[in-house]
């Protein structure tokens, strides 16, 4: 994937056209982080902030676009710009000079017009800026706090950061700019770019590839993970909340982790334009991650965060389920965790129509420990056999339903029928059984 400022800006333009403004904003943030003087990216960010209702920030972005525009006369239209867009129009307030006539020599009117423009517009504007600068310099120490950081709205007096941990959907984490650049709007955890306060964690880069199967076609997603991020996340205390529900929320909504998992969500989206197929890719990807039998055998589980599960490329049922819940939430689906206390097992539920829901929960069942078909909650588990007890439903976040789940529902019923026929199948049934194994990447166990 091209990671240049130009590529991020063009990617943002694509999201903007789809009215996916939060995602567009994240891309523009990446672009200006790579190239802080990129005028077009600043302008496009201003348009996006305006669409999101961040009016003050949009004005700041527009000013930077004008300041960093080397041509000083580029046209900025009502939609995001590409670097190749026309620059023939004048900035607002300038009119094209009339053609020379017998009453004025060529260039005479243009010179007079420029003088008039400077006297009437530029000079007063310069004086106003000078007065504002002097006023700002005089009052800045009073409003900035003793430590020099109290100026920003999300911090308290004296620079004390009053933000708590992000544990609910909709809360945000701010992107702290490099010195000299204005603060940009808060963005929801789903779509935030890697903030500057987390950049120091990007050490020990490791390239990881995660396979998946979509209707029998094998694919792979490759992303860069960081050992430094894993070490920092390991310092978090996920057990600081009393309830089980809150504990899972903490695993999912961790700001630092969220910032570094965005590339995986983006990579899944790039594999298919169909949202439900994106969900299928996420499900298969997590199911394909090896089960951590060694940790289970130890009997002392310290649940890993989703980022750690990816970094270690292994996990037990609750770890893989939390990872899948995270991905499905970021892809826009309503998600819950199924906690089976009697069986000591955790699975995932994705919002679905009542006829496809698991035991009247409103969610379709998804097993995460191994490749199985969505809605198939009748599998055999080595430790306890079949799941018998009803689950405790722990909602992870709201979103859209998995609309095309009927495909999996029909396949799961067929899969259960075939398995009920015993270890020996007729040729037709055996071919159908193999076809389902290939479609979902199911690896049959020993007979």
What does this structure look like?
By secondary structure, the chain is of the alpha+beta class. It has a domain at 200-440. The chain is built from 14 helices and 6 strands. The protein has helices spanning 5-17, 21-34, 39-52, 55-68, 108-144, 227-234, 244-252, 255-271, 275-288, 293-298, 306-312, 317-330, 406-419, 427-440, and strands at 205-214, 217-226, 335-340, 345-351, 363-366, 392-397. It has a 4-stranded antiparallel beta sheet with strand order 5-4-3-6, covered by helices on one side. The chain has a two-stranded antiparallel sheet with strand order 1-2. Strand 3 and strand 4 form a beta hairpin. Helix 1 packs parallel to helix 3 (39-52) and helix 3 packs antiparallel against helix 4 (55-68). The protein is elongated and about 90 Å long. The chain starts with a helix and ends in a 7-residue tail after the last helix. 35% of the residues are buried. Mean pLDDT is 75; it is low at 72-78, 83-120 and 140-193.
Give a short synopsis of this structure.
The protein has helices spanning 5-17, 21-34, 39-52, 55-68, 108-144, 227-234, 244-252, 255-271, 275-288, 293-298, 306-312, 317-330, 406-419, 427-440, and strands at 205-214, 217-226, 335-340, 345-351, 363-366, 392-397. It is elongated, with a radius of gyration of 28 Å.
